[in-house]
Specification:
The complex is a heterodimer of chains A (365) and B (329). Chain A has helices spanning 2-17, 19-40, 58-70, 80-88, 102-110, 129-151, 171-189, 192-200, 203-208, 214-242, 252-276, 280-296, 309-315, 319-332, 340-361, and strands at residues 47-53, 73-77, 94-98, 121-124. By secondary structure, chain A is mostly helical. In chain A, strands 2-1-3-4 form a four-stranded mixed β-sheet, sandwiched between helices. The longest helix of chain A has 29 residues, at 214-242. Chain A starts with a helix and ends with a helix. Chain B is of the alpha/beta class and 329 residues long. Chain B has twelve helices and 14 strands. Classes of the chains: A mainly alpha (365), B alpha/beta (329). At the A-B interface, helix 1 and helix 9 of A face helix 3 and helix 4 of B.
Chain lengths: 365, 329
């Protein structure tokens, strides 16, 4: 035990002092979380809309206030020319023009007349079809509710936007467990590198010339990987919760259990690599080759339903599919792909099989 | 100095029984007819020798002679295909862990954690053993004090080798294995390491070392075995090994003003006269008689032999004689 502790602490110190390894295992997933979080964070002021008020009336300002409050847009005031220049520069996504005469028409309507309608223009960029469509819908919605309000009628139908999954599960909540799964996978398969390095440098052989038992040697590697996995998990979840507003709904013992099981399974896959790679370069190459299919052929970034049939078949065997599934279920209450015991069973199966392969083929020198 | 006896069969010269038969001598390492093949290559082909307590025993030979493989089998890092190895009266196969607690190993590839400091590494290795020496003492003994806080990747070649030896000493071992400890070192660094090895001996430790430097074997080893192609060709003390092959010594002196050849040939003990670039060499079995006669000749001629020197054959000559090759090939 004393030897295990000493060796773990030495390995951990080596790891912390190796800046490159530290960067890849800690900074990389964090960057990933922040990047994804920025891309997928929904709900705020998503669009910037040039607001051109040619009427300059009380009514047009009331409309602006109502719009700013209800629509997911940030309004940039200015003349039509200014707004156009900004749109050409990409500073605003579209322009909404309130024409002269709005106040006159509204006043007339209040007076019970039926004046000719005024036309509110929405100018969008057809090359950005999603944005154009969204802005047109926003503008239409604005005009319709204005009409409704002006006509004094009670709305009969409303739309309540909901998704099929739990109400809270926005896309960030979907991605944070995926990123955690990916980080654990990388951490694990990269476990091959220090091991192959130590073998190449003769460190394993040197340790073998001491009475240090082999279980302590392997054990210290695993301990270090688990400590790093815990640190990664804390960082990723910390950022997810504090910065991106992800709510962890699940039960902590289960989360910790699956993080540990995932780290062990992928570390064991890393040991398989270390069993077959003779040099550090070979281990690097094999690790890259292994990690990309593990990552992209598993359902962690794309839901399995959108994959072509054959790919879904492959993904059904990938351990990361199950780790991602388990983490999503336990952390944010995501819809299950498989029940948790099945996830645990598949991961455990991979662990046992890869351990057996390493035990059979690993060379100490 | 106590030296074990020689027998005719050099590969079996120092069996444990022979050593133990002499009072006060105890075989600490006993290797008997050990073989190890890698595919068709016979890396070690029937090697036997014994190392007595407190001596420095050297395995001398060119690269690829099987020295390191032999040593690493004794250290328990490889299993021999056949043969017996006992260390400290324990079987290497069965009591490997117990042996490892009492021996110290320095490997040819200095295996270090590049990011750990010298003292951290020494402390780490100390944790693997039942018995250990204070890190401070190791740092003093191996002149690494000012490097104690340095990461091992920043060390020079000589410092790295000394650290590698220090690592072999963390458990205060009774037996120390040194595999080519001075390879690649400059002469000053090599001298420093030789002093360390001599001190280890003076502390009563038994040392088994490999080297392909003849001077190193001559300077350090009480006894040695010359190896080539996986076999022990000769073993014994340096004097015994040379004496067995070369009874004659060379009396060298300056060629300028030397007596004529026929007079030299007639000197007592001289079997042959050779002329090398600016030297005359008299090969003789009786050095005092030959030199006496030579001095008589020169005194009569009112001169004296310039740069007079007696040279015996070297291990290099023995190796050349045994294999037809120079050791450094």
């Amino acid at each position: 035990m004393r030897a295990l502790f000493a060796l773990s602490s030495a390995n951990l110190r080596s790891f912390i002092r190796d800046r490159a390894a530290l960067f890849w295992t800690l900074a990389f997933p964090i960057t990933f979380v922040i990047l994804f979080g920025t891309i997928f964070s929904g709900g705020g002021a998503d669009y910037r809309l040039g607001w051109v008020d040619q009427d300059q009336s009380q009514q047009s300002q009331a409309l602006r206030a109502a719009f700013a409050e209800n629509a997911p847009v940030e309004l940039i005031d200015g003349t039509y020319e200014e707004a156009k220049a900004k749109m050409l520069d990409g500073d605003v996504d579209g322009i909404l023009v309130i024409p002269r005469g709005l106040a006159v028409v509204i006043d007339a309507a209040h007076a019970g007349q039926t004046p000719d309608p005024v036309s509110v223009s929405i100018i969008t960029d057809p090359s950005r079809s999603n944005t154009a469509l969204a802005l047109q819908q926003i503008a239409t919605g604005l005009v319709m509710s204005a009409n409704l309000a002006l006509s004094g009628a009670q709305p009969l139908l409303t739309v309540a936007p909901e998704t099929l999954q739990t109400a809270r599960l926005n896309s960030v909540s979907f991605f944070v467990p995926s990123i955690l799964g990916m980080a654990l996978m990388q951490l694990g398969v990269f476990a091959s590198i220090p091991l192959v390095q130590q073998r190449e440098k003769g460190i394993l052989k040197r340790l073998n010339a001491t009475p240090l038992p082999r279980w302590a040697l392997v054990g210290s590697n695993v301990v270090v990987r688990l400590i790093i996995a815990a640190t990664q998990t804390a960082l990723i979840l910390g950022i997810g919760v504090a910065v991106l507003g992800v709510e962890i709904t699940g039960n902590w013992p289960l989360i910790i259990g699956f993080v540990a099981l995932g780290a062990l399974t992928f570390t064991s896959i890393g040991y398989v690599i270390a069993s077959f790679a003779k040099t550090e370069e070979a281990a690097n190459g094999m690790t890259s080759i292994v990690q990309f299919p593990l990552m992209f052929l598993s359902g962690i970034f794309f839901p399995l339903e959108v994959m072509p049939e054959w790919l879904r078949g492959v993904a059904t065997f990938m351990p990361l599919t199950y780790l991602g599934d388990a983490l999503r279920q336990t952390m944010v209450g995501g819809a299950p792909f498989q029940p948790l015991p099945i996830d645990a069973l598949v991961l455990g199966g991979w662990l046992v099989v890869t351990l057996a392969i390493s035990a059979r083929f690993f060379r100490w020198q | 100095m106590d030296r074990p006896p020689l027998t005719a069969d050099s590969s079996r010269a120092f069996s444990a029984a022979a050593l133990l038969g002499r009072p006060g001598l105890e075989a600490v390492i006993d290797v008997e007819d050990v073989r190890k093949s890698y595919g068709s290559l016979k890396a070690v082909d029937g090697v036997s020798f014994s190392v007595a307590k407190g001596e420095i025993f050297g395995l001398l030979g060119p690269n690829g002679a099987g020295k390191t493989t032999t040593m690493e089998m004794i250290e328990g890092l490889h299993q021999p295909d056949s043969g017996q190895i006992r260390v400290l009266d324990m079987d290497v196969r069965q009591q490997s862990a117990a042996i490892k607690h009492r021996v110290g190993v320095q490997l040819q590839t200095a295996a270090l954690y590049p990011q750990l400091t010298v003292e951290e590494l020494l402390a780490l290795f100390g944790q693997f053993f039942d018995r250990r020496q204070p890190v401070d003492r190791l740092l003093v003994d191996l002149e690494l004090e000012e490097k104690r806080k340095a990461q091992t990747k920043t060390l020079s070649g000589g410092q790295r080798q000394r650290l590698s030896v220090a690592l072999a000493l963390v458990n205060d071992p009774e037996v120390v294995f040194l595999d080519e400890p001075t390879t690649g070192l400059d002469p000053a660094a090599r001298q420093r390491l030789w002093n360390v090895v001599r001190r280890l001996k003076s502390e009563g430790r038994t040392i088994l070392m490999t080297t392909h430097y003849m001077e190193e074997a001559e300077a350090l080893c009480d006894r040695l075995a010359i190896m080539d192609h996986g076999k022990v060709l000769e073993s014994g003390t340096v004097e015994e090994i040379i004496g067995r092959r070369f009874q004659e010594r060379g009396v060298h002196f300056g060629r300028k003003g030397a007596p004529e050849e026929d007079k030299l040939k007639a000197l007592p003990g001289v079997s042959r006269v050779a002329y090398e670039s600016d030297e005359v060499v008299l090969y003789t079995k009786d050095v005092p008689a030959t030199i006496g006669g030579l001095l008589e000749l020169t005194t009569r001629a009112r001169t004296e032999p310039a740069n007079l020197m007696i040279r015996r054959a070297s291990l290099e000559d023995v190796f050349l004689e045994l294999t037809g090759r120079a050791l450094r090939d």
